[in-house]
Amino acid sequence: MLIRDLSGVTQRHGYLIRVGRDGVAPAPDGGIIQPIADWPSGAVALGEWQGAPIAVFGENGSADWPTARQWLHTLPRDQFPLLSSALQVLKWLRDHRFCGRCGKRMKRLEHEFAMHCTGCQHREMLLARSPRFGPGMYSTLAGFIEAGESAEEAVRREVHEEVGVEVGRVSYFQSQSWPFPHSFMLGYYAEYAGGDITIDGVEIEDAQWFTPEDLPGLPPKFSISHALIDNFLRSVATGR
């Protein structure tokens, strides 16, 4: 299983996935995971795989490398997330090189999959309010995992159902016990992938993008929602 935690990746050495313009390089064992070795300059860490760091490296590649679609027919099931993560991370890096506000080159944060503008410091977070909230209060989106879903699948589904936005990479933050029967809170960050805010009008009555300098009323400090927001604000303040 891919552990999507970059905090433990402290060296540029481990497994590697090589991605070309048209395909993904085969490894000696017939899969896509190259043996443990020093990473080339430009390799991007994805997390940990089987106890060792793993990264993706974009290059010109070879015309005879199988395409991603071809790999889907031969890869072991547990390597599907690796292939998906590698391709999405490279596309994200390519498509978000410059700030959408001021046009300056973005800096990639090493501890998470996020880009930071050193010019205008532009970063935003999506918050929403339920009709049950007190006046002026907004919080992170929340929902329930349905039967047969993974937590990550639930994040993507709930965000799309409630505010109409598509999200890409989802990363775990922390958990919290919740004072209701059969309830346990899991906190995740999700990267915006596309779409305009379209609220459902039932569970959500408003949703907006907020900058760290212009925040609405926030949920109680003991909540995991507040911890998610605080952690995001700290990362913006330090430029990590």
Low-pLDDT residue spans: none
Which strand order do you get reading across the main beta sheet? 1-4-5-2-3
Total beta strand runs? 11
* β-sheet strand percentage: 25-35%
Can you give the mean pLDDT?
Answer: 86
Shape field:
globular
DSSP helical segment count: 4
Give the distance, in angstroms, between the N- and C-terminal Cα atoms: 26 Å
Structural commentary:
It is a single chain. With 240 residues, the chain is of the alpha+beta class. The protein contains four helices and eleven strands. It has a five-stranded mixed β-sheet with strand order 1-4-5-2-3, covered by helices on one side.
Which keywords apply here?
single chain, 240 residues, alpha+beta, five-stranded mixed beta sheet, two-stranded antiparallel ribbon, 4 helices, 20% helix, 28% strand, globular
Write the layout of secondary structure elements.
Blueprint: E1 2-3, E2 13-19, E3 34-38, E4 44-49, E5 52-58, H1 68-71, H2 80-95, E6 106-108, E7 115-117, E8 125-129, H3 151-163, E9 166-177, E10 184-194, E11 206-210, H4 224-238
Parallel strand pairs: 2-5
Antiparallel strand pairs: 1-4, 2-3, 4-5, 6-7, 8-11, 9-10
Quick structural overview:
This protein has 240 residues and is of the alpha+beta class. It contains 4 helices and 11 strands; from the N terminus they run βββββααβββαβββα.
